[in-house]
Amino acid sequence: MSVSFNHTIIAARNRDESARFFRELLELPEAPSWGLFTNIQLTDGVLLQFAEPPVEIQMQHYAFLVDDELFDRAYRRLCDQGVEHWADPQMRRPGETNDEHGGRGVYFKDPAGHAIELITRPYL
Predict the structure, then answer these.
(1) Contact assessment for residue 25 and residue 77, using Cβ atoms and an 8 Å cutoff
(2) Rounded to a whole number, what is the largest CA-CA distance in the chain?
(3) How far is it, in rounded angstroms, from Cα 44 to Cα 108?
(4) Are the C-beta atoms of 104 and 122 separated by less than 8 Å?
(5) 42/95 same-domain check
(6) Of 12, 22, 92, 99, which is least packed with CB atoms within 10 Å of its CB?
(7) How many CB atoms sit inside 10 A of residue 5's CB?
(8) Residues forming a β-bridge with 116
């Protein structure tokens, strides 16, 4: 059997709010949820499980590869909602996107404070 990524748990202050943020941003349908998790499923089958841990949330980085059309729509939603964003991970170029690696990219934070990146071309 080959190796593929199946799921991860993402810490959230409010699991439903975080899942809704990603569903709306990435235009994903609702997925079945259970127990401590509110789930979303990416188009490649990877499951993101949002949970509310009883500890202080440490920022993590999550990058999503999207096509150009979804990038345009997602970026427009970020701007329309007033979500602060940057062209770089150091957050030195506010309100911009980048055109590195032969595509476009943008960085922003999700409702739990995680560093999120949308890119239109893979790095490798």
Answers:
(1) yes
(2) 44
(3) 23
(4) no
(5) no
(6) 92
(7) 10
(8) 62, 108
